[in-house]
Design a protein that fits this description.
Blueprint lengths: L1 H11 L4 H52 L5 H4 L10 E8 L3 E8 L11 E7 L2 E7 L8 H7 L3
C-alpha cells in the first residue's frame, strides 16, 4: 500500500525538468523559423508608410506647381520631415520649374530592411520614376524595385 502512495504522489507533481526543457527548445525552434517571415511582413507594412507619404508628397507638389509654376521643398509645402508613422525620413533634394526629386530614407527598426532602406521619387516633365536601394545609390533591379515600392 505504501508503494502505491509514492507512485501517485510522483504522478501528481507535474512536469520534469527534462520535459520542460524539451518544450522550451521546441518553442525556440518554431519561433526562430517564424520570426523572419514575421519581420518581413512588418517591413512591408512599414514600406507602405513610406509609399503613402511619397504619394501625398506627389499630390501636394502638383498642387503647388499648378499654383506657382514650380515645385517646392518640404518647408514650402508644409509637409513633415517624417513619414506618417515615423519609419522614414523624407526630403526633397531638388525642386525647380521642371522637376523634383524626393527621398524616403528608412530609420529606426526599418533600417534593418536591407534591400529597401532608400526610396527615390523623381518627377520630370510629367514622367514619374520610382527607384529603391539598400543605400542612396538606388541600385535595385526592376523586380526588387517593385517589391520595395509595394507595386
Amino acid at each position: 500500500m505504501k508503494h502505491r502512495t509514492i507512485i501517485s504522489r510522483r504522478a501528481a507533481r507535474g512536469f520534469t525538468l527534462v520535459e520542460l526543457l524539451a518544450a522550451v527548445s521546441i518553442a525556440g525552434v518554431l519561433s526562430s523559423i517564424a520570426w523572419p517571415s514575421f519581420e518581413g511582413s512588418l517591413q512591408r507594412a512599414r514600406r507602405a508608410d513610406a509609399t503613402l507619404s511619397m504619394a501625398q508628397l506627389q499630390i501636394v507638389q502638383e498642387r503647388w506647381y499648378a499654383n506657382r509654376g514650380r515645385y517646392g521643398n518640404l518647408a514650402e509645402l508644409r509637409l513633415p520631415e517624417r513619414s506618417s508613422a515615423g519609419h522614414y525620413r523624407l526630403e526633397v533634394v531638388a525642386a525647380d520649374e521642371q522637376a523634383y526629386v524626393a527621398h524616403a530614407l528608412a530609420s529606426g527598426a526599418q533600417a534593418r530592411d536591407a534591400a529597401c532602406r532608400s526610396l527615390r521619387l523623381s518627377v520630370s516633365g510629367g514622367v514619374t520614376t520610382r527607384e529603391s536601394g539598400a543605400d542612396e545609390r538606388f541600385g535595385n533591379d526592376a523586380a526588387a524595385n517593385r517589391r520595395c515600392w509595394n507595386l
